[in-house]
Design brief:
Distance between the termini: 24 Å
Number of strands: 12
Number of helices: 14
Strand content: 15-25%
Order of helices and strands: EHEHEEHEHHHEHEHHHEEHHEHHEE
Length: 360
């Protein structure tokens, strides 16, 4: 199943518009078993130009891209952690996702009323972050209460666990997101089952208008003033939605007129892929060229298991070549003849852009 990213923000900042633009790039769900899609969930392809080049090289019958699932979470309001505006229900939805797109409005438009009447991105980011922090404090408080008596009884392991929960609580009480703090692997493993909202990877998407695009340094300063070290992108989401209605030629011409050289929605999808620390390895052949998603630092034997559990159990070796080298050499047969296929074992750390054939 694809990893999921929740879109959060205040009401009227453009979440539904962003979701609409994203789902223009939705894959055919029939290709992805076990994905249940309801009206506020979209499984979206990850842009990857390597696939078409490899498919042309292998004369593949079909191309299957990597995917990310986007979840449109209704607008949070001040007091959401106490149930304001059905806040508990929406905060529970965030708990289920792997990462967060925090959408922030920075454009003026008298026809779209801001919930706080004025445009102030710094204030809006603080509002949403505070709701996430307060919910995490509530979650941790329950956990600390439960484990404290066991720790007081002299259980050394419980004392260690309690210290980790108290460390996380101290950051939250200072108004800091847990994704901004360092935790070792033991601490991460202990906190993970709690699904803390502020521990999730986050990207800020500034929703702007192309005619009043901000200087990146301005946006960076907003985050710096909030002591946030988070990736961000600036996109005119309404424009991207309109572009999604055009065919490819019309889109190219319109973008040329406006002086746009990037696809803003693709930029958001790719950024989400990176902040979730995902990479892609590839398989290619006559039947299919396919992108497979794994976490950074995944070993070859585990990558094989992504294709099929039998591949992991019966792994012998992996033949590996970088996608670009494969294209330069003219294909798998030519690469093999020139001795350019590397033979790797179970412990090989797969790299982004590896083309792999597993031997079982």
């Amino acid at each position: 199943m694809p990893l999921s990213v929740g879109i959060v923000g205040l009401p009227n900042v453009g979440k539904s518009t962003l979701f609409k633009a994203l789902t223009k790039k939705q894959v055919n769900i029939a290709n992805y078993p076990f994905c249940t899609v309801d009206p506020n969930v979209g499984v979206v392809r990850v842009p990857d130009k390597r696939l078409e080049k490899l498919a042309a090289l292998s004369n593949s019958k079909k191309i299957t891209p990597s995917t990310i699932e986007f979840v449109d979470i209704a607008g949070l309001v001040k007091g959401a952690n106490k149930g304001e505006g059905l806040g508990n229900q929406f905060l529970a939805k965030i708990r289920e996702v792997d990462g967060i797109v925090h959408l922030v409005r920075i454009f003026e438009d008298g026809g779209i009323v801001h919930i706080d009447k004025t445009i102030n991105p710094k204030r809006d980011i603080e509002t949403i972050n505070l709701e996430l922090i307060m919910k995490d404090i509530e979650t941790l408080k329950k956990r600390i209460e439960k484990i404290s008596s066991e720790a007081r009884s002299g259980d050394k392991e419980k004392k260690k666990e309690l210290a980790v929960f108290q460390k996380a609580m101290s950051y939250l009480e200072q108004g800091q997101l847990l994704n901004q703090k360092e935790f070792d692997q033991y601490e991460k493993d202990l906190l993970k089952p709690l699904c803390l909202l502020t521990a999730k990877p986050m990207i800020i998407v500034f929703n702007s208008k192309i005619e009043s695009k901000k200087n990146p340094q301005e946006l960076e300063k907003i985050l710096k003033d909030l002591n946030l070290n988070l990736p961000f992108v600036e996109v005119d989401i309404k424009l991207e939605t309109d572009l999604g209605e055009l065919n490819e030629q019309e889109k190219r011409e319109y973008k040329r007129e406006l002086g746009i050289d990037q696809d803003g929605i693709d930029q958001i999808i790719s950024s989400c892929y990176r902040f979730l620390k995902l990479i892609t390895f590839l398989t290619t052949g006559r039947d299919e060229t396919r992108a497979w998603t794994i976490k950074e630092n995944t070993k070859a034997v585990k990558a094989a298991g992504v294709i099929h559990s039998d591949f992991e159990k019966k792994f012998i070796k992996a033949e590996v070549i970088n996608w670009q080298t494969l294209i330069e050499l003219g294909g798998w047969t030519q690469a093999a003849k020139k001795g350019m296929l590397r033979v790797e074992g179970k412990d090989y750390i797969v790299r982004d852009g590896d083309v792999i054939e597993f031997k079982i």
